[in-house]
Amino acid sequence: MNQISPLAYVHPEAKLGDNNIIGPFCYIDKNTAIGDNNVFQNSVTINYGARIGNGNEIFPGASISTKPQDLKFKGEDTTCEIGDNNSIRECVTISRGTASKGTTTVGSNNLLMENVHIAHDCVVGSGCIIGNSTKFGGEVTVDDHAIISAEVLTHQFCHIGGFVMIQGGCRFSQDIPPFIIAGKEPTRYCGINLVGLRRRGFDNELINNIHEAYRLLYSKGVLKEGIEEIRKNLPESKEINYIIDFVENSKRGIIR
User: Fold this and answer.
1) Is the pLDDT of residue 220 over 90?
2) pLDDT at residue 141 tops 90
3) Hey, what long-range contacts does 34-42 have (CB within 8 A, 24 or more apart)?
4) Residues linked to residue 95 through DSSP beta bridges, in sequence order
5) Catalytic one among 120, 131, 143, 162?
6) Disulfide: which of 73, 96, 103, 178 matches 161 by Cβ 3.0-4.6 Å?
7) In sequence order, what are the beta bridge partners of 46?
């Protein structure tokens, strides 16, 4: 049974699961679907096109599935999909998709701290931590288990790899490859995310191979030559293949 404050508005066409708590002054629009066991604290706005899973907690002032801040958006029927067990803190805004991809996606078990903005057509994976006042432009992709500190500005179309640590206040317009620390000004490679990898259970041999992969990659002026050195000198693994695939498929180039 849902607990809906008499001071909340839930559109009669909204689809609600079971055991949700909807606090005062919340607004839930039509064409929305909400799963089970979610907690919406006071003054949460769930806009048209939202698809929210189970066990999420959304804090005051957050606005989910907002109209895209994109002048090309012409009112097309798009969505914003949120997974399970996310903590979405105060004043977070997540836009719905545009005709480009049709949806904005946030996975599960993420912490989005206060005042984060996730723009249209972004894809955020699972297990991520995104710090206060960090902003993603349109169509940014963030892979699983990324940690992005406060007040980071990400240019549209950038790709952030998994298991990274991005230092606070960074701004960048190129891709951040996986397993590394990115920081300083301009944003650049600052070594591998050693502490983060150990916390995630990476053994010393694998960590050493990842470190060597980046040494080889960045030792060459041409990234293609660095990739050839990695293939030649390191044993194949899913992590090494991930690095190679990420670099080879980067459309904006990677930070150096």
Assistant:
1) no
2) yes
3) 35/84, 42/5
4) 66
5) 120
6) 178
7) 28, 64
